[in-house]
């Protein structure tokens, strides 16, 4: 990781942590248990990759980070809600997330379901009325539409449904890509598009280039996750290592072999870099971030 990217990622992590802290309900406000669970799941954990993408894209487009706090928080809240529900016994049935007990283990299943529901609702509330968003009502509506599509049956939730239906089945590479374009990629694309929608007067060619970049890194992120699920360990990952293989889920290493999966990640990285050819040095952080995604160890 380049020093410039490392410094900016730390800046983004600290910024979104403060922003989330300020936007989550206090655990002293009724219903206390629900609010405690929301803060437990959201704060002090995770790479914050999606908010970082929003901030990095904004920086590429010349937007100030303070104008993107609401959008960055919204995509992270949707992401955390999805993790809480993914970990439930009816889904992946996992007891470890981000290095600590999952929500249904730390609290209970009913609270975990309600916590995910509440975080999803809060995400859209932020896009509707967060005062930091420097855009008009039409811009807010477009952000809400973008995040709603990325989160629902045509995006993340649809991808999770395909994932559950694919357990024990042998998918083709295009079928696996389609699943992950929805399950993982849709929210990553939305994270980038939050910033492009916040940029008033942005031409469609530039917006499309950034969207294609996001599509490529969304897939490379999942390929790398599949690789780490086999090559890393539980302590490093902060979640149960080998879970996908144990659950007989289709993965890139299973379909392509480990060498083939690593080559696939490299190819997707190059496609992401090519998508940024319309930019100069102002997109260097996005270029470095694409490389980091396929080189990370957790």
What would you say this structure looks like, in words?
The structure is a single chain. 43% of the residues are buried. The chain contains 14 helices and two strands, in the order ααααββαααααααααα. Helix 1 crosses helix 4 (69-86). Strands 1-2 form a two-stranded antiparallel sheet. It has a single domain, classed as Farnesyl Diphosphate Synthase (Orthogonal Bundle), CATH 1.10.600. With 298 residues, the protein is mainly alpha-helical. The model has no long low-confidence stretch (mean pLDDT 92). It has helices spanning 3-23, 32-42, 49-60, 69-86, 103-106, 109-129, 137-151, 156-165, 173-198, 204-231, 234-237, 243-246, 252-275, 284-295; strands spanning 96-97, 100-101. Strand 1 (96-97) and strand 2 (100-101) form a beta hairpin.
CATH class: Mainly Alpha
Helical coverage, percent range: over 70%
Rounded Rg: 18 Å
**Average pLDDT across residues?**
92
Largest sheet: 2 strands, antiparallel
**Derived structural class:** mainly alpha
Dominant shape: globular
Number of domains: 1
| Separation, N- and C-terminal Cα atoms | 14 Å
List the secondary-structure elements in sequence, H or E: HHHHEEHHHHHHHHHH
CATH superfamily: Farnesyl Diphosphate Synthase
CATH topology: Farnesyl Diphosphate Synthase
Q: Multimeric state of these chains?
A: single chain
What's the β-strand tally? 2
The share of residues in extended strands comes to under 5%
Q: How would you write the strand order of the largest sheet?
A: 1-2
Number of helices: 14
